[in-house]
Amino acid sequence: MNGRTEQRLSGSHHAEQNQEPEKGIVVDMLVRGMKVAPVWLIFSWLVWGLDGVASSAYGLGLIFANFAAAAAFLTWAGRISTAALMFAALGGFIVRLAVLTLAVVAASKISVFAPVPLGVTIIVSHLGLLVWETRYVSLSLAYPGLGPSNMTPKKCKEIK
Questions:
Q1: Which residues, in sequence order, are CB contacts of 150 under 8 Å at separation 6+?
Q2: Helical pair 21-78 and 115-134, crossing angle rounded to 10 deg
Q3: Which of 39, 62, 111, 137 has its Cα between 20 and 30 A from that of 6?
Q4: Residue 97 domain-assigned?
Q5: SS3 letters across the chain
Q6: Number of separate domains in the chain
Q7: Can you give the pLDDT at residue 160?
Q8: 122-130 — which CB contacts under 8 Å span 24+ positions?
Q9: Which domain holds residue 60?
């Protein structure tokens, strides 16, 4: 492939990402979550045993599904109007919170359910992934969603 073809392909991918920044952000969060998940599951196994691993894996699945549902709902509503987007943001949060609550209540009837690892996993993974992702999200209208790789913070000396 020559340089022009690569530039054209990467440019179209970047343009597609900018049209639906929610998807790009969530995919990036899920990739980061999948990198950390094995470490968290090993930690859960060491601290809480096999029931803790099962509950932590279930919690990670719930959080990943929650992020994917949020992106899908916001992307869909964003195509309609700004009012629909605002309604989807608030209403979708309430609906997803209710679904998470129902999923936890339903899991409480299973014999391998351990509430502490599940609760810790849901809280830590949710907040951790959101905080981790804030470093990579662009706050520029020129690049909504994830910023280009050359915009990541670099170590440089401050000029005084």
A1: none
A2: 100
A3: 137
A4: yes
A5: CCHHHHHHHHHHHHHHHHHCHHHHHHHHHHHHHHHHHHHHHHHHHHHHHHHHHHHHHHHHHHHHHHHHHHHHHHHHHHCCCHHHHHHHHHHHHHHHHHHHHHHHHHHCCCCCCCHHHHHHHHHHHHHHHHHHHHCCEECCCCCCEECCHHHCCCCCCCCC
A6: 1
A7: 52
A8: 122/59, 122/62, 122/63, 124/40, 125/33, 125/40, 125/59, 125/60, 125/63, 126/63, 126/66, 128/36, 129/29, 129/32, 129/33, 129/63, 129/67, 130/29
A9: 19-135
Q: Domain for residue 32, yes or no?
A: yes
Over the stretch 61-92, which tens digit does the pLDDT of each residue have?
999 999 999 989 988 988 888 898 889 889 99
Beta-carbon-side half-sphere exposure of residue 25 (alpha carbons within 13 Å): 28
Q: What is the Cα–Cα distance from 40 to 22, expressed in whole angstroms?
A: 26
- 158 lies in some domain: no
Would 128 be classed as within a structural domain? yes
Answer for the pair 119, 52: CB distance below 8 angstroms, yes or no: no
What amino acid occupies position 1? Answer: M
Spatial distance between the Cα atoms of 43 and 75, rounded to a whole number of angstroms: 35
The predicted-structure confidence for 113-158, as pLDDT tens digits, reads as follows 899 999 999 999 989 888 887 777 756 544 555 555 544 455 545 4
